[in-house]
Amino acid sequence: MNIDITKEELLKKFGLNVKIARMKKGLTQEQLADLMNIHLTYIARIETGKINMSLGKILELAKFLNVDINKLLFIE
């Protein structure tokens, strides 16, 4: 991992990983939000890199997407 990455770049890459995993699962943002019992805008903010999720929430998200947490956290 590049240690010179900025927080903003990290959040955007994580958000892109979430979006890809969600789409592979065939879910809309709204469907994922409903499954997780959270507001739609929260998912949108994750995917656009505008929110810094806690590790616990990332784990929960990985479980709902049925994806290895490492796939969400993988940053080149």
From TrEMBL:
User: Does the keyword Nucleus belong to this entry?
Assistant: no
User: What is the name attached to this protein's record?
Assistant: Helix-turn-helix transcriptional regulator
Keywords tagged on the record? DNA-binding
List, in alphabetical order, the Gene Ontology terms for molecular function in this entry.
Answer: DNA binding
Record-linked PROSITE patterns:
HTH_CROC1 (PS50943)
One Pfam family matching this protein: HTH_3
All copies of the HTH cro/C1-type domain together span 18-72
